Amino acid sequence: MADTRPLTFVCLASYFKGSAFLQAAKRLGCTVILIAKEAFAQEAWPRDSLDEVYFMPDLSRRPDILYAVSYLARSHVIDQVIALDDYDVETAAALRDHLRLPGMGESLARHFRDKLAMRLQARVGGVLVPEFTGVFNYDQLRAFLERVPPPWVLKPRSEASSMGIKKLNAAGELWPLLEALGDQQSFFVLEQFIPGDVFHVDGLADAGEMLFQQAHQYGQPPMSIYQQGGIFLTRALDRQSPQAQMLFSLNRQVQSALGMRRGATHTEFIRAHADSRLYFLETAARVGGANIAEAVQYATGIDLWAEWAGIEAAYLRGEPYALPEMRDGYAGVINCLARQEWPDLGAYDDREVVWRLKKKHHAGLIVASPDSARVEQLLKAYAERFAQDFLAVMPPLDKAPA
Ligand SMILES: Nc1ncnc2c1ncn2[C@@H]1O[C@H](COP(=O)(O)OP(=O)(O)O)[C@@H](O)[C@H]1O
Ligand SMILES: [Mg+2]
């Protein structure tokens, strides 16, 4: 007889995000258990969609999380562990390995969290990547510095939001940095800095195929925004354009080389100013941050979080998953730190403005249109106005706040 008990998802959230996944899982009839980081206990979690909620100070601490989830397993048949935040991807994988659940285990999850692992694996799959090396053997590091022209970047293998990335212009700059890092140095990767424009493809995978993809171009490269401040901007590219088509096919190649089976993906590429070729920058097994999910939804009607829940549930039930019909639309996001505590966005009243950010000392909005050129034009004009009306600048962080 078929197993008719509802599916049980344990969802990990080291950040306040993923509400749409939790709500969708509940709508699909799943039992939804959330384990979130204590620091976010007061946030507006969708409590109506949660069967149980637990807060822990640090979700990545072992063996605490293994004990906690195994304890839950005494009274629940856990079907899947879901990582809502990037920092939860390895933890969820370790839990799957421990509980013998399907989906990404620890070594596969590395391809989506560890920038050195994803570089190596993508290169093996024939994808163009910046020259890079692990920080292990000093003879190899010296050879890299001789072979590959500067500038270079030294970056943490598993951080996000450009945190801890250092740009180097001369070989002599590397050694004091490594000295200062001490035992942490092997957790970094050294690579060639490729000046260029940064793109991202956000998508959904099922059965090892990309079912949905939307290609975007950032305004300025994320590193300059995070480290020097400025206006963050990203917009969807015309799906029919050669650039978008190229990004779709490259992303397919990356995901297949890295072993993505199902779920949401966010992948970044650099188009080099020097030769216009696209280099694989990084990927993640999650929904893109910075309101990209909202933009994709306003553009296409596809809710990446909700469809991800649908893909997981269908797989576990042994049912086929079908993507809902999508609109051929476009959207873009603009935001910045604001001088004002609650900036007034009232003057940004074009009918394409579909969403406004409500966050202290931030100004931000989403524009959507069936026409990608209209999105581009509006955001360009808004960027100039944001610089005048709101923009404030703050010093960068080297690490995620605890
Ligand atoms: N090899 C590189 N060449 C040029 N820019 C880079 C390179 N690596 C990183 N950057 C810049 O730093 C940003 C962050 O790097 P990334 O590898 O995407 O890490 P994360 O987004 O996880 O912090 C990129 O968006 C890009 O602006
Ligand atoms: Mg990035």
Structural class assignment? alpha+beta
What general outline do the C-alpha atoms trace?
globular
Using DSSP, what is the number of strands? 16
Number of self-contained structural domains: 3
The CATH homologous superfamily of the largest domain: ATP-grasp fold, B domain
Bound molecules: adenosine-5'-diphosphate, magnesium ion
Write out key terms for the chains shown:
D-amino Acid Aminotransferase, Chain A, domain 1; binds magnesium ion; 402 residues; alpha+beta; 25% strand; Rossmann fold; binds adenosine-5'-diphosphate; 3 domains; four-stranded parallel sheet; eight-stranded antiparallel sheet; 16 strands; Dna Ligase, domain 1
Care to describe what's here?
The protein is of the alpha+beta class and 402 residues long. It has three domains: 8-102, 3-Layer(aba) Sandwich (Rossmann fold); 131-192, 2-Layer Sandwich (Dna Ligase, domain 1), CATH 3.30.1490; 196-389, 2-Layer Sandwich (D-amino Acid Aminotransferase, Chain A, domain 1), CATH 3.30.470.20. It contains twelve helices and 16 strands. The strands form three sheets. The chain has an eight-stranded antiparallel sheet, with helices on both faces. A hairpin with a 5-residue loop joins strand 12 and strand 13. Helix 3 (89-99) runs antiparallel to helix 4, helix 4 packs across helix 5 (115-124) and helix 5 crosses helix 9 (242-258). The model has no long low-confidence stretch (mean pLDDT 95). Bound molecules: adenosine-5'-diphosphate and magnesium ion.
